[in-house]
Amino acid sequence: MSQDFISTQLLVAGHWQDAADGRTLPVFNPATGAQIGQVAHASEKDLARVAEGAAQGFAVWRALTAWDRFLIMRRAANLLRERAEPISRIMSREQGKPLEQALLEINAAAGVIEYFGEEGRRLNDALIPARAPNVEQRVLHRPIGVVAAFTPWNFPINQIARKLGAALAAGCAVIVKAPEDTPASPAELLRAFCDAGVPAGAVSLVYGNPAEISEYLIAHPVVRKISFTGSTPVGKHLAALAGAQMKPVTMELGGHAPAIVCEDADLDSAAQRLCAAKFRNAGQVCIAPTRFLLHKSIAASFVEKFKMQMNRLKIGQGLEEGVTMGPVVSERRLNALNELVADAREKGAIIWQADVPLPNEGCFFAPTLVLNPTLSMRVMQEEPFGPIALVSEFSTMAEAVQEANRLPYGLAAYAYTRNERTERLLGEQVDAGMIAINHHGLGVPEVPFGGMKDSGYGTEGGPEAVRAHTLIKLVSVEHDAPEF
Ligand code: NAD
């Protein structure tokens, strides 16, 4: 067995261990198809121990002061930074993304953890003025309990960092069900927390059959909150399971982001920035721009500039020097993308693909434009979650906004314009949890990150993300009248 072969274990009550029944799942490199590791497949026996350990970990973690929790979280963030280089190699091999993007993700995750650690120190209680004399009304924010967090493979570390960071800052313990496609890099994140001194059971890590694990954990009495990032259908299913248990959820689901390019836009900047945002992580980003809505007066010019940018992409294995786009994560995703493009082609779309060489093996998908799409095409309704941009034209801003708001999704939206009034109107009228105009600055930890409608609810950024892991309690006390 190659020494690069990684066996990822479960983290149960502070111990790294194999599954109780020894079951594993294979892990593949999407750039080559080779098996590069395996991951432990938890059974109910493991999950029962994890839940018990998390209950104990919660009791210890919540009893620490916010300052002590912050110190541990800051240490974990620093360990992650120190280890970023080797971890980025692990991530690139199992997920496919270019090394540079893996490094950026890991360093961003360290920043997220640090931010939330600090935010936990500002989780202030409140005193509300009372209507009667000598009455004190205290509003307490207390940790909600053990959180079950389900995270996907597109950002194997950062998706977990957001959930862990916000929950730990509030004093909660977290059981992470990390992605089986990309298990080894998340384990390194959890290792950083263990090495930083987080109490046993305050963080746990499991893999296995996602449906079985979510059903088990959501129903478990120890688990008090559910947090999920993934597709809308799975999110609705998990929210329903949680609803049956009266447990709150944070749901960060799919998107189908419009990118409106107005007639007064800086086209060079728009083409360059939208290309970078579209093809980052091979388009497997919930906030990736997908529906390009171009004012008809600039459409041809923008498409030419955008194609030039696409032709500059370098496709290959993430570990290769200079590669800017890797493979998609799995054959499952490759097949899904091929089906969407075949459907669009059959229904009359013009398919244009970047003139760049693709490796002969692995899950590579060429950067693709779908021109003249119609509403009957699946890709105009479903999130492609890959390197596909759909190009349509509009004549009036009202038309553009109507198309932007057509779908049940409402996660991210983008626009390029130099008109301040248009900026303001778009900010108000586009139904999206996040709108970036003339740039792509979404995702820093101190601002909200979340969607509306079928894109989910709750936020994974800012102080609200920490508060979402608390219970609000009122303690109202009538004291004796004070006298010396
Ligand atoms: P999928 O819906 O099968 O899985 C998405 C994620 O959810 C995976 O990590 C998977 O392990 C998990 N999952 C699936 N069923 C689950 C269950 N019953 N309980 C708990 N977790 C469960 O889709 P996929 O093929 O892996 O990815 C494709 C779709 O997922 C995309 O089209 C996109 O909409 C969505 N996705 C979204 C994000 C995001 O950042 N919002 C990330 C990854 C995938």
Automatic annotation (TrEMBL):
InterPro entries in UniProt: Ald_DH/histidinol_DH, Ald_DH_C, Ald_DH_CS_CYS, Ald_DH_N, Aldehyde_DH_dom, Aldehyde_DH_Superfamily
Top-level taxon of the source organism: Bacteria
Keywords of the record: Oxidoreductase
Keyword Iron-sulfur in record: no
Residue ranges annotated for the Aldehyde dehydrogenase domain, each copy included: 16-475
PANTHER family, A to Z: SUCCINATE-SEMIALDEHYDE DEHYDROGENASE, MITOCHONDRIAL (PTHR43353:SF5)
Similarity section: Belongs to the aldehyde dehydrogenase family.
Protein name according to UniProt: NAD-dependent succinate-semialdehyde dehydrogenase
Species the sequence originates in: Acetobacter farinalis
